[in-house]
Design brief:
The structure is a single chain. The protein is of the alpha/beta class and 490 residues long. The chain contains 17 helices and 14 strands. It has a six-stranded mixed sheet with strand order 11-10-9-12-13-14. A four-stranded antiparallel sheet has the order 2-3-1-4. Strands 6-5-7-8 form a four-stranded parallel sheet, with helices on both faces. It is globular.
C-alpha cells in the first residue's frame, strides 16, 4: 500500500495522484509539516538507552515533526513503540520512513496514514434524540401517534419548524465539480468534504447538517433536485460547485425557495477575507476606499470577494485570471468576469505594480517575490490557495506588512469556518427567509471586531476558528441584519 491508503505501507513512492507535488514548484520553500500528512510508525527497537533518541534524531534530520510517542510492548530485550509524525507531503513522509528504516537494529513494523484512519467509516452519524424503551414511547414517536403530528403540519405548514428537524437542519450539497483545489472529482470523491462540512456545522454551531452529493452536473437538474428536497431543511449550503454554473444555481434557488441558500465557496470566503482586510488596513493606516486591490482568481471565490469588497467601499479593484488582467479588450470573458473588466491590460505582474493589497484565490506559486516588491509601501498579501499558497510566506516575510494564508500552520488563517456556522445559526434562529449582502457585511464587521485594538498585530488580524465568541458574534450580526431588512420570522 502507498501512503494515503490508510493501512500498512511497504512503499511511500506510489502516492495518490491528487497529492500536491512540491517538485512541481521548484522555486518554493519546503512546506511546513502539518497534521494533514501525518503518519504513525510502529517500530521495534532494542531495549537499551539511547535507541529512542536515535529514532528521534533520524526523524529530525529529514525535517519530520515529532508528535505523540506511545509504548505498546516491552520485554527485557525489545520495545515496540508507535510514533506519530507530521510530514509536509507524501514524498516527505517517504523520506521520514526511509530515515527510520536506515537505523541499525530498528525494525519498522507498520506505517499508518493518520488522516485516512480518521476518515474510515465516515466522520458523522445520526442519533435519536429520545430513547425508545417501551411500547408507549414507540406509539408516540412513530405510529399511531405520529399521525397526529402529520395532520397538524398539514393543517398549518409552519408547524414543520417546531415539530420536525427542519428548524435546525442544513443540507450541504455539491455536484463534485470543484472539490477543494482538486477539480472535478465527481460526487463520490466529494463526499469526504461534505461530511467534514456537516461535522463543522455540528461542532461549531450545534446545527444538524447532512451531506448530499448529486450525480449530475446539469444546472436544471441540480436546481430541480434541491427544490424537491428542500422541505426537509431549514437552509441550503452549496459547496464545491464550479463557476460560472454556481452563480446561476444559487440565484435560481434563492428565487424558488423561502429558506436561506448560501454558497460558502463564494460568500464564506468573501466574508472572512473582508474581516481580515478590515484589520490589516487598520495596521497599515490605509482606507478601503483608497487602496488598490489585486484579486488573482476569477472563479466563484474571486468574484464574490470583489463584489463584497465593492459593497464595503472598495473602489479600485483589478482582477486577474489565468490569462491575465480582466481587460475590456478581451473577448473571452463571461458575464461575471465582464462585471470587473478594466481598461488596463497585461498580466498579474503588471497589475501588481503599485498595488496595496493582493488577494489570491488561485494557484500555487503564481506570485513571485519580485511582484511583491513592486507593490506600494506596507503591502498586504492574502495568499489563500490551499494547500500550497500563491507565494510561500517565508519568501517575502521582510517585504510585506501583513501576510495571511488559507493554511492553519501560519498566522492569520483565512478560514470559512469563521463565517458559515454563525451565518446559518443566526439565519435559522430568526427564521430568515434568505441570506443577504447586509448579513455578509455585518458578519465581516463582527468577526473583525473580535480582535481588540490592543491585540491587533501583523500576525493577529483574525480570530482563531476555535474562538468560542465567533459563532455568537456572527449569529447576532446576521439576526440584526435580518430584522432590519424585515426577512426574519422569529
Amino acid at each position: 500500500m502507498a501512503f494515503g491508503d490508510g493501512g500498512e505501507i511497504s512503499t511511500l513512492s506510489q502516492a495518490t495522484l491528487t497529492t500536491p507535488r512540491l517538485k512541481n514548484f521548484p522555486s518554493m520553500v519546503q512546506l511546513t509539516p502539518n497534521p494533514s500528512f501525518s503518519l504513525t510508525i510502529r517500530l521495534q527497537l532494542p531495549n537499551r538507552a539511547g535507541m529512542l533518541a536515535s529514532v528521534a534524531s533520524a526523524i529530525a534530520s529529514v525535517g519530520g515533526n515529532l508528535g505523540q510517542i506511545s509504548l505498546i510492548e516491552q520485554t527485557r530485550q525489545i520495545l515496540i513503540r508507535e510514533i506519530s509524525i507530521d510530514a509536509a507531503s507524501t514524498e516527505h513522509a517517504d523520506q521520514i520512513v526511509n530515515a527510520v528504516k536506515s537505523i541499525p537494529e530498528v525494525a519498522v513494523l507498520n506505517v499508518y496514514d493518520r488522516t485516512f484512519n480518521l476518515h474510515r467509516s465516515g466522520k458523522i452519524t445520526i442519533e435519536s434524540k429520545i430513547p425508545l424503551k417501551n411500547q408507549a414511547d414507540l406509539a408516540m414517536a412513530y405510529t399511531p401517534g405520529v399521525g397526529r403530528i402529520c395532520t397538524a403540519i398539514a393543517e398549518d405548514i409552519e408547524q414543520v419548524y417546531t415539530l420536525t428537524i427542519k428548524q435546525n437542519t442544513v443540507a450541504v450539497i455539491t455536484d463534485g465539480s470543484a472539490v477543494l483545489g482538486l477539480g472535478n472529482l465527481g460526487p463520490e470523491a466529494a463526499l469526504p468534504v461534505m461530511e467534514g462540512k456537516a461535522m463543522l456545522f455540528k461542532e461549531f454551531a450545534g446545527i444538524d447538517a447532512f451531506p448530499i452529493c448529486l450525480s449530475t452536473q446539469d444546472t436544471d437538474a441540480i436546481v430541480e433536485t434541491i427544490k424537491n428536497i428542500a422541505p426537509v431543511f431549514g437552509g441550503i449550503n452549496l459547496e464545491d460547485i464550479a463557476a460560472p454554473r454556481c452563480f446561476e444555481i444559487e440565484a435560481r434557488l434563492r428565487e424558488l425557495l423561502n429558506i436561506p441558500v448560501f454558497h460558502d465557496d463564494q460568500h464564506g470566503t468573501a466574508i472572512v477575507s473582508l474581516a481580515a482586510l478590515y484589520n490589516a488596513l487598520k495596521l497599515v493606516g490605509k482606507s478601503l476606499a483608497e487602496v488598490q486591490i489585486v484579486i488573482n482568481g476569477a472563479g466563484a471565490a474571486g468574484v464574490a470577494i470583489a463584489r463584497l469588497f465593492q459593497k464595503a467601499g472598495a473602489q479600485k479593484i483589478v482582477m486577474c485570471d489565468s490569462k491575465g488582467i480582466l481587460s475590456k479588450s478581451r473577448t473571452d470573458l463571461n458575464p461575471q468576469k465582464l462585471e470587473f473588466a478594466v481598461e488596463q491590460s497585461g498580466f498579474l505582474g503588471d497589475a501588481m505594480k503599485g498595488s496595496d493589497v493582493f488577494i489570491g484565490v488561485s494557484s500555487p506559486g503564481v506570485l513571485t517575490p519580485e511582484m511583491v516588491r513592486s507593490m506600494a509601501k506596507d503591502p498586504i498579501v492574502f495568499a489563500m490557495a490551499n494547500p500550497i499558497p500563491e507565494i510561500q510566506p517565508e519568501l517575502v516575510s521582510k517585504e510585506v506588512a501583513v501576510m495571511a494564508t488559507g493554511r492553519s500552520d501560519y498566522p492569520n488563517q483565512i478560514n470559512n469556518v469563521l463565517a458559515f456556522p454563525g451565518i446559518f445559526r443566526g439565519a435559522l434562529d430568526c427564521r430568515a427567509s434568505s441570506i443577504t449582502v447586509s448579513m455578509y457585511l455585518e458578519a465581516a464587521s463582527a468577526i473583525a471586531s473580535l480582535i481588540k485594538p490592543s491585540d491587533l498585530s501583523a500576525e493577529h488580524i483574525i480570530p482563531s476558528v476555535f474562538d468560542e465568541r465567533v459563532v455568537g458574534a456572527v449569529a447576532g450580526a446576521v439576526q440584526k441584519a435580518a430584522r432590519q431588512e424585515g426577512i426574519a420570522s422569529n
